[in-house]
Amino acid sequence: MANLGIEINRKCPIRFKVFIIKTLDSVYCSPKCSKVVNKRKKNKEKKEALFVTYAQNVPGIREYLTARQVVAIYGIERSTLYYTVWLS
Ligand SMILES: [Zn+2]
Description:
The protein is mainly alpha-helical. The protein is 50% helix and 7% strand. It has three helices and two strands. It has helices at 31-56, 67-74, 78-87, and strands spanning 9-11, 18-20. α1 packs across α2 (67-74). The longest helix has 26 residues, at 31-56. The relative contact order is 0.09. Bound molecules: zinc ion. The site of zinc ion has 8 residues, from loops.
């Protein structure tokens, strides 16, 4: 790890805490924050994989779609769906 010779402050996107960066690539204030980001990323990937599986199992012929099916098939957030329904 090279010493930059100057102090550069950056705000951690997780805890919103200002910290002095150790390298120019530093984004998070601590390893704990990095873990939080990795965990969120993994959970998101898991959720998306689950949606893909769910969307593939929706029958081809149907009279209506449930909210869960719409979210899985069209890849939108549930809140967007409800907001769109509310607008129409
Ligand atoms: Zn942090």
